[in-house]
Design a protein that fits this description.
The protein is α+β, with helices and mostly antiparallel strands and 298 residues long. 45% of the residues lie in helices and 10% in strands. α2 packs across α3 and α6 packs across α8. The two termini are 24 Å apart.
């Protein structure tokens, strides 16, 4: 297959792009910024990867779409929508961003909405089981990153307390612990592309044929990823790359082309929006070369 050579070319072409590793979580600042990886998983269960594809990193905000899916599956759409809106905020991921009258966060892809989601999901185990089924292996928490973030998570605690004042979050400490634990699951790009492929396949796992979530749930999750997944760069992303996506401060980005493929890229250096600098460029190339933009006529 020519695909692995092509993926190597993409890594090479983007290798010169630099960014800054996140340092507000001390453990993340220690990661080697030269790491780069890419993986693709199709809805027919074909898999390709290149670069540091076995390197594990924490899932961080790429957990948000999956936690949102668990909440919708667990409680139903109306109950989730009553607490978390579906409007893009156009703001940074950690913005103190909730509706000033109701306390409702704007969407589930920024921290406020993800902390509210973690509260709704009910238990960390429910999330970890779901994510592990999608990845096809048992995912584990990186305890060093968990402890590191818990020691510096003042903004997230502030957000949770603010939402508790409005009754959106019941137990702020518990919701933040669960959210940070969810963000600390260790994955590689192959795990992420498999997870994204079930979203691409309408909720049916490409390998096992098992239905893991309702098709309607995947549509909801992908819609919010498309409008809100790249924070304050969401508009630029949708116009240049053109697929639903979600980034994380560890340097990963997942993308989903509905009906076709799940994609994951990784490189720890971030741009000014907190998205992987090299990862954004890799995704642009993949989208251009493979004609992935959803607004293409066909
Ligand atoms: N756990 C991180 C935080 O809450 C996730 C942020 C991210 O990946 N953008 O700050």
């Amino acid at each position: 297959s020519p695909v692995p050579d092509y993926l190597d070319e993409v890594l090479q072409a983007c290798g010169g792009i630099q960014g800054e590793t996140a340092d507000y979580i001390p453990e993340l600042a220690k990661v080697d910024p030269s790491l780069s990886a890419v993986a693709l998983s199709t809805v027919d269960d074909a898999h390709h990867s290149a670069g540091d594809a076995k390197h594990r990193f924490t899932i961080q905000s790429m957990s948000k779409p999956f936690a949102y899916a668990v909440a919708i599956e667990h409680l139903g759409w109306d109950a989730v929508h009553a607490k978390i809106d579906v409007e893009p905020s156009g703001e940074a991921f950690n913005e103190i961003s909730v509706d000033s009258e109701t306390g409702r966060p704007h969407n589930a892809m920024i921290n406020a909405g993800a902390i509210a989601t973690a509260g709704l999901v009910g238990s960390f185990e429910r999330f970890a089981d779901f994510a592990s089924r999608l990845a096809g292996r048992e995912l584990r928490v990186d305890e060093a990153v968990y402890e590191s973030e818990m020691g510096s998570t003042h903004r997230n605690l502030a957000l949770a307390h603010l939402m508790a004042a409005y009754g959106i979050v019941e137990d702020p400490r518990d919701a933040v612990e669960r959210y940070v634990r969810q963000c600390s699951l260790a994955v590689d790009v192959r795990d992420l592309s498999r997870m994204a492929a079930t979203l691409a396949n309408g909720g049916v796992h490409p390998e096992t044929g098992e239905r893991i979530m309702a098709e309607r749930t995947t549509r909801q999750v992908l819609s919010v990823m498309a409008t809100c997944g790249m924070y304050d760069a969401a508009g630029d992303w949708l116009s240049t790359v053109g697929i639903p996506a979600k980034s994380g401060v560890s340097g990963g980005i997942i993308g989903v082309l509905p009906g076709q493929v799940g994609v994951a890229v990784f490189s720890p250096g971030l741009d000014a929006h907190g998205n992987s600098a090299r990862g954004v460029e890799m995704m642009r190339r993949l989208s251009d070369d493979m004609g992935m933009h959803l607004m293409n006529p066909g």
